Amino acid sequence: MEIFSYMEKYDYEQLVICQDKESGLKAIIAIHDTTLGPALGGTRMWTYDSEADAIEDALRLAKGMTYKNAAAGLNLGGGKTVIMGDPKKDKSEELFRAFGRYIQGLNGRYITAEDVGINVADMDLVHEETDYVTGLSPAFGSSGDPSPVTAYGVYRAMKAAAKEAYGSDSLEGKVVAVQGVGNVAYKMCRYLHDEGAKLIVTDINEEAVQSAVEEFGAEAVGTEEIYSVDCDIYAPCALGATINDETIPQLKAKVIVGSANNQLKENRHGDQIHEMGIVYAPDYVVNSGGVINVADELYGYNQERAMAKVEKIYDNVMAVFDISRRDNIPTYQAADRMAEERIEKMRKTKSTFLQNGHHILSRR
Ligand SMILES: NC(=O)C1=CN([C@@H]2O[C@H](COP(=O)(O)OP(=O)(O)OC[C@H]3O[C@@H](n4cnc5c(N)ncnc54)[C@H](O)[C@@H]3O)[C@@H](O)[C@H]2O)C=CC1
Ligand SMILES: CC(C)CC(=O)C(=O)O
Q: For residue 352, how far is its CA from the centre of ligand 1 (angstroms)?
């Protein structure tokens, strides 16, 4: 990848490569756009095949956060970190504290939280070195693990998409094919099961699958089978790019709603599923519950206030469907339009000179 051309094409602000020999830290912090405020986005720890893959993932995820935060109505820009390493083997206090020092060095331009491979205890270690971290233990007066709230938001989004596709938002009797039953999806499955949905699940982690079978009476299928099962709703909840040339022809679902980031491999796949009449609830509108919850920490965490905003994910998804119908565009474009319009309006508002500026972080 030609890094500068890529950054120029999608208007990225900054890419920070962090290396610490002592702890083995190899982290990439990508900041996409800070028009709305400091960039907030989680840290992912993953065994990437190459440095180029890691950089590309950080960049793509950071841009997604700009749109997610804007569409959710947050006064925050978009950024993300990836740490190259195996979350089962390579974690240490030194690594997370070294990482925390790099974040502190950005002086509030970027605030982090959990993502795949990272937990609350890891973020507590990062907090030893920086204030610019959220999703800390409730013992710090913080909001804790964002995944239960993300799960609730995805469930609400699924109800909105069901309303759009079937005229009723009840999920009773609906068959939902869940790809990846990790932190978010497992909790999402509980809401679906309680409402009477039938679950088909897959995961590379056998234990997680077994638990879903036992607790929710889910049917287990292989990782490649999940695309072609007979179902009403496909819920991609593992990693990104699963809506692609190979999988689209296999899909039987009428609705796609899941927690994974960057579900469309390319935009043209969003066009394709739109033409097929599939109701696609755009990923970053659907999975914004976690970031809405951790962002509330910046005002002094209040669970009731945060959950009131998470409830609105239902309306946000509906607003995307309305824009899609009004402008006759696929839903992924409708979501982008909603986010971009907000960023542009705020860019104009913020162009008025203010002596000492005002910053969301000054409230902490
Ligand atoms: N945790 C959160 O609050 C948020 C998570 N997300 C996104 O949701 C997705 C899931 O996140 P978490 O549940 O936190 O992560 P997780 O790591 O707990 O869960 C992911 C699950 O997918 C499974 N998996 C990986 N590759 C697979 C494959 N090829 N086929 C089937 N299963 C596979 C993993 O074994 C794991 O159980 C990620 O894309 C993440 O970026 C988005 C917003 C917030
Ligand atoms: C998990 C979050 C708190 C933020 C994030 O990185 C995301 O929404 O993808």
A: 41
